[in-house]
Design a protein that fits this description.
By secondary structure, the protein is of the alpha+beta class. The chain is built from nine helices and 13 strands.
Length: about 350
């Protein structure tokens, strides 16, 4: 739905405020070492492939452990930050550092708390999940309480009939007041399980890496083709963090890829403040995957390493969370069809 179409409809607007929702009347665990798979031959090419695959497995486990060590405690039921609830949907303001849905080890998540309080028609937590936010990202999330609502909302997200807006604080001074970032994304074969900007060279390297994998699961993940990815941004204001320049942005993920906004910001030379993966000395590829010589030419006004290091020092001192927040979600109610807007202010 276009901006014009939305503006012509009488939106029902819900804004999160402390521990209630308001309807606006006018509108680290230990990491096991890599284990050898049974039945693999020794020697030659197969042995080299096995070594590469074991290294990949170990790196994935290390990064998963790092993520678990960052995970915060889920809110108690009485502290759940609810924006809106009715018999069809629940909308909450997810804190940063909390899993949106249960992880592979069934770590507690915001979805568990929502299900505990509000339940759903099927009794199955998985059938409440409409979409999700990264663990490190805070903001508006909607859950379904009926099977019909789940199907309708899934269709709306898939067909891009939902409008989303994020707020981010990024390193350095973004010179243009607005713009778009149109860069395809792929799974990062060097830094699994994260993603990076896709280039002809990275695609060749990924294809070669896939050839050397034996494990079917890794092969499936790494074999996925790059996906077109488009984000737009607009400067809200320029400010400082510590002693360094930062820029506050409105971000819109036109496409909805994994870690899209985080990688796109890093790729334009302005990683998001507090990003433990794509920021300064992060777990993923720096610069969204671009080499420094490319960045020097394409983004001469980017945040310098010195700036990023200085900001990172203050982030660690203040135990600052990732400064990325899903602040706005507009959709049609899955049962009534009424246009609805849900908002929550950024906590940074």
């Amino acid at each position: 739905m276009t901006e014009t179409e939305w503006s012509a409809l009488p939106n029902q607007r819900y804004i999160y405020c402390s521990d209630k929702y308001l309807k606006a009347s006018s509108c680290s665990e230990g990491v096991e070492g890599p284990r050898r798979e049974e039945g693999l031959e020794d020697g030659g090419v197969k042995e080299d492939r096995l070594k590469a695959e074991l290294a990949l497995e170990y790196e994935r486990k290390m990064k998963a452990a790092a993520a678990r060590s960052r995970a915060g405690t889920v809110p108690e039921p009485e502290d759940l930050p609810v924006i809106y609830v009715d018999e069809h949907i629940v909308v909450v303001n997810k804190p940063s550092g909390v899993l949106c849905v249960p992880g592979v080890r069934l770590q507690p998540s915001i979805a568990d708390v929502v299900h505990q309080i509000y339940r759903c028609e099927s009794g199955d937590l998985a059938k409440m999940i409409v979409h999700r936010l990264d663990m490190d990202t805070s903001g508006v999330v909607v859950f379904a309480r009926t099977n019909a609502s789940l199907r309708t909302l899934h269709d709306a997200f898939r067909d891009r009939h939902v409008r989303k807006k994020y707020e981010a604080l990024v390193c350095g001074r973004v010179l243009a007041t607005e713009g778009e970032i149109n860069l395809p994304l792929q799974r990062d074969h060097r830094h699994p399980p994260f993603v990076r900007v896709s280039t002809p060279q990275s695609e060749k390297e990924a294809a070669k890496a896939v050839e050397g994998l034996v494990h079917a699961g890794y092969k499936k993940i790494m074999k996925k083709k790059p996906k077109p990815s488009l984000s737009t941004y607009e400067v809200i204001q320029r400010e400082t963090y510590g002693e360094e320049e930062t820029t506050r942005l409105d971000l819109v993920p036109v496409t909805g890829r994994t870690h899209q906004l985080r990688v796109h910001c890093a790729a334009m030379g302005h990683p998001i403040v507090g990003d433990p993966v794509y920021g300064y000395m992060g777990e993923g590829a720096p610069n969204g995957g671009f080499e420094d010589n490319v960045m020097n030419e394409a983004a001469p006004g980017r945040a310098t390493l010195e700036q990023q290091q200085s900001i990172d020092r203050v982030v660690k001192e203040n135990r600052k969370a990732l400064c990325l927040h899903a602040k706005y979600l507009a959709l049609k109610h899955p049962f009534t069809g009424a246009p609805m807007v849900f908002e929550a202010a950024a906590p940074f």
